[in-house]
Amino acid sequence: MYAEERQRAILKQARRNGRVDVATLAAAFEITSETVRRDLTALERSGVVRRVHGGAIPVERQGIEPGLDARDAVMTAEKDRIAAAALEQIPDGGAILLDAGTTVGRLAQLVPADRELTVVTPSLPNACALANRPGVTLMLVGGRLRGHTMASVDGWALDALKDTFVDVAFLSTSGLSVERGLTTPDTAEAMVKRAAIASARRTVLLADHTKIGDDHFARFGDLCDVDTLITDSGAEPRELDEIGRAGVKVIIV
User: What is the pTM of this model?
Assistant: First the structure.
């Protein structure tokens, strides 16, 4: 088993059980304790676990939500590939919505300067990236700015999206599973994401493989709300097959 495959298995076990310990993992995978510790360190650097004495705990079980900079620094190559693939889903004209999130943020930076688009976004970083594009009519959704994600939330944001209709919504998620759908740690962000889905004719979800099989506190949608999922090749084929059987078009990059 390659290190990446083993680390995915360790992460899944941690999320299922709430914790993993070095000795048990070493015995289960027939590897040394030092190898397990390296795997846990790699997972911690990816922002999906926190090391504790003798093992690790998945971050969502600690109620930890990493800040924007911390999330932007992990899975960078995967996020870049996903964003590049998502660029092909942007129409030549019309209106799109760009959700808050680091992968969608990469897509915002790729929007062609000469593309005639109306872009709706609750994300301050996305707005800054698009502010000077001559072909873009930028509609920044107002509301309370949530510092963790630099996204507008609460009533003002919901009021704006209630009467907004776009061709494609590009969404991010903290968790994605067949059992629990689309989830995020914060209820205020969940409401805005739910409104974004309702505003769109088509929803494209951008999620690297660490989000698949994970779940967080607040659900904002089900798989039936997603038309297309763009993810990276680190995702487990079995999980992607289940998502595909739920009616989602899966693009792997």
Answer: 0.80
